[in-house]
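User: Hey, my collaborator sent me this sequence without any context and asked if I could get a structure. I don't really work with proteins. Can you help?
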Amino acid sequence: MTCPVGKTVAIRAAATALDPARHVIIYLANPTIGVRGMLTHIVATLGQSLRSLMSGVGASDAQGGGV
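Assistant: No problem. I've predicted the 3D structure and written it out in structure-token form, which is a compact way to encode the shape of the chain:
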């Protein structure tokens, strides 16, 4: 059990201070989904699919265009 120390209040205050034109707030309700589930949810919220984004990764890396 977590202690009520104001984590949600702090997150909400920080979120309202962000420029909505530059930042998208994404709520992840299930903390047990893992990294791939989290990435899938984030990418879907932004209007893409993880599969479409990952399909170009190998070609980009092969050409030296990786991050």
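In plain terms: Residues 7-62 form one domain. You can pass these tokens on to your collaborator as they are.
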